[in-house]
Amino acid sequence: MPDFSMSHDTARLHRLIPRIALSGAGALGLMTALTGCTNQAYDSFAPACPITHIPPEAADYTLYNGKGTTFRDMVVHASIVRLQGDCLPGGEKNLKTRIVLRLAVERGPAATEEKISLPWFIVVMHGDKIVNKHVFHHSVTFPATFSTFQTGTKVAIVDLPIAPKSVDPGYSFEVGFQLNKDQFDYNRQHMHTATYRAY
């Protein structure tokens, strides 16, 4: 399995590189859009989406204050609890995939700021090769009245250079938190049964 805690040089891996962008719309906008349709012939039926996978090692994000790894040293802990998305044509030779994460967030005793940024990634795989990767930063503000809450990311859009009518089975997505080596190793040592749901 690829090491998703590291960055990857994808310049030489594929001639047609998928494009990844972040939309200003949130999860509510995505789910509203799922009920819509267009008049173009190739939009008669929603195209199939590439398989999307959340590696268990990347489903949790824990940040400590650098003084230890006990609960009192924890700044924030976040878990992916749900992945939603859909696919639609972006033209006759382009497949557009939209992805939203639902996160459960816990503020730790060591948090000193009201806001924090949670990094997450989308990796585009073709076979066993990484052809593109993008890291997003989801900013959250800790509520004043409680320490645990849920939040949704903005919509991430991935454009694949394939015809919507015939999805290339070689394409797939890996989605998770962007971790440093210590976080990645900690998750591998303390993995538990995942509770997230994917579309």
Structure notes:
- Helices cover 8% and strands 42% of the residues.
- By secondary structure, the protein is mostly beta strands.
- It has one domain: Immunoglobulin-like (Sandwich).
- A hairpin with a 5-residue loop joins strand 4 and strand 5 (95-107).
Features:
disordered N terminus; elongated; mainly beta; six-stranded antiparallel beta sheet; Immunoglobulin-like; 199 residues
Query: What does the oligomeric state look like here?
Result: single chain
Helix and strand pattern: EHEEEEEEEEEH
Q: What is the fold-level CATH name, i.e. the topology?
A: Immunoglobulin-like
Give the amount of beta strand, in percent.
Answer: 35-45%
Count of distinct structural domains: 1
Number of helices, where a helix is a run of at least 4 consecutive DSSP H or I residues = 2
Amount of helix: under 10%
What characterizes the major β-sheet?
6 strands, antiparallel
CATH architecture level-2 label: Sandwich
Give the distance, in angstroms, between the N- and C-terminal Cα atoms.
22 Å
List the uncertain runs. Answer: 1-17, 25-45, 195-199
Principal-axis shape equals: elongated
Number of strands: 10
User: What's the CATH class, please?
Assistant: Mainly Beta
